[in-house]
Design a protein that fits this description.
The protein is of the alpha+beta class and 157 residues long. The protein has helices spanning 47-63, 136-155, and strands at 2-6, 12-16, 20-29, 35-44, 69-71, 74-82, 92-102, 108-120, 123-131. The chain is built from 2 helices and 9 strands. The strands form 2 sheets. Strands 3-4-9-8-7-6-5 form a 7-stranded antiparallel β-sheet, sandwiched between helices.
């Protein structure tokens, strides 16, 4: 079980999810490829491990504030933490947004994304959405709605 975070050179690398009991990830896209989304759930041995996961993600955002992040041929820029109203019911939420300028094939793209990660007890949930220009407000709304829905489903079990 791994997650992807930037290293000291702002290159995206796989990092082990230590003390995680389970991790599930799902990707989705619109048929016309105008929107991409992902969601994940990580279950830790306890709430302290989930808190560390959120702190690690927040620290990673602060590590590369003026540099581009890269993974193979993909390149993200303007990656930063944003303050948005956190969905209710979470112990902590970190919100990230940025711009994808080059895709996995090295082709130029113009996609903007929002990623919200929230913890509640031993659970860490993530929702991310990516679309073209002038979509960040809608991306924020959709990511927050998805994160809230995931938490409500988790709480109903």
């Amino acid at each position: 079980m791994t997650t992807s975070l930037p290293d000291q050179n702002c290159k995206i690398v796989a990092e082990s999810l230590t003390d995680a009991l389970a991790h599930q990830w799902r990707n989705a896209k619109k048929p016309d490829n105008t929107a991409f989304a992902s969601s994940s759930l990580t279950v830790y041995k306890g709430a302290d491990f989930a808190k560390r996961d959120i702190a690690r993600q927040r620290d990673a955002l602060r590590q590369c504030p003026s540099k581009s992040e890269t993974s193979d041929k993909r390149q993200w820029d303007n990656v930063h933490e944003v303050k948005i109203p956190a969905p209710k019911g979470f112990d902590d939420v970190v919100a990230e947004e940025g711009h994808l300028g080059t895709d996995e094939k090295g082709q130029t793209v113009d996609a903007y994304y929002v990623s919200l990660t929230g913890s509640r007890g031993q659970y860490v949930l993530n929702s991310a959405i990516s679309r073209g220009p002038d979509t960040q407000e809608q991306n924020r709304t959709d990511a927050a709605n998805a994160l809230s829905l995931m938490l409500s489903r988790l709480a109903s079990r």
